[in-house]
Structures are given as structure tokens and as C-alpha cells.
């Protein structure tokens, strides 16, 4: 059940990260959602290791959005479209 919860939070985190970092992504909205889910996992894992794990829905959403934002930034840097 925890994985389903993480996917739902990751979906919202991906949407928030996309909102915070507008522009054209090389992979489109599907990639952004998948990066949000991965950011949720990474953010939760790193937050737990650093002792800053979010408590409650808002805390988890903030940690997950931060992870998704970083992954989206790295993805844009690595797969930038050449014009």
C-alpha cells in the first residue's frame, strides 16, 4: 500500500515540479510524471537518511516535489534538445 501512496504523491510532486519549472521538456508530460514518482522515492529516501523526512501529507509532498524538481533539472540538462 505504501508504493501506491508514493505513486500518488509522486504524481502530484511531478505536476508541482513542472509548474515550478515551466518550459518544454525533452520527454513531455509522461516523463515528467515518471520523474515525479522517482523524485518521490528519492526524496523520501534521502530525507529519511538526513533526518528531515516529511511528516504528514504536506511534508511528504514538499520532500517529493524537491526530489522531482532536482531530477527534472538533471533530466533537462542531460537530454536537452539541440536546436
What would the keywords be for this entry?
globular, 83 residues, single chain, mainly alpha, 0% strand
Task: Compile the SSE list and pairings.
Layout: H1 2-20, H2 28-50, H3 56-78
Can you describe what's shown?
By secondary structure, this protein is an all-alpha fold. The chain has one domain (2-78). The protein has 3 helices and no strands.
Note the beta-strand portion: under 5%
Backbone shape: globular
The separation of the N and C termini measures 43 Å
Sheet bearing the most strands, described? none
Residue stretches low in confidence (pLDDT < 50, at least 5 long) are none
Number of discrete domains: 1
In round numbers, the mean pLDDT is 76
Please write the string of helix (H) and strand (E) elements: HHH
Number of helices: 3
Tell me the number of strands: 0
Relative helix content: over 70%
| Protein structure class | mainly alpha
Quick summary:
The chain is mainly α and 83 residues long.
Amino acid at each position: 500500500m505504501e508504493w501506491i501512496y508514493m505513486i500518488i504523491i509522486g504524481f502530484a510532486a511531478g505536476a508541482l515540479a513542472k509548474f515550478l519549472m515551466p518550459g518544454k521538456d525533452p520527454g513531455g508530460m509522461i516523463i515528467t510524471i515518471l520523474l515525479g514518482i522517482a523524485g518521490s522515492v528519492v526524496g523520501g529516501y534521502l530525507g529519511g537518511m538526513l533526518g528531515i523526512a516529511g511528516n504528514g501529507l504536506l511534508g511528504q509532498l514538499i520532500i517529493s516535489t524537491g526530489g522531482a524538481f532536482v531530477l527534472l533539472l538533471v533530466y533537462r540538462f542531460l537530454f536537452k534538445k539541440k536546436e
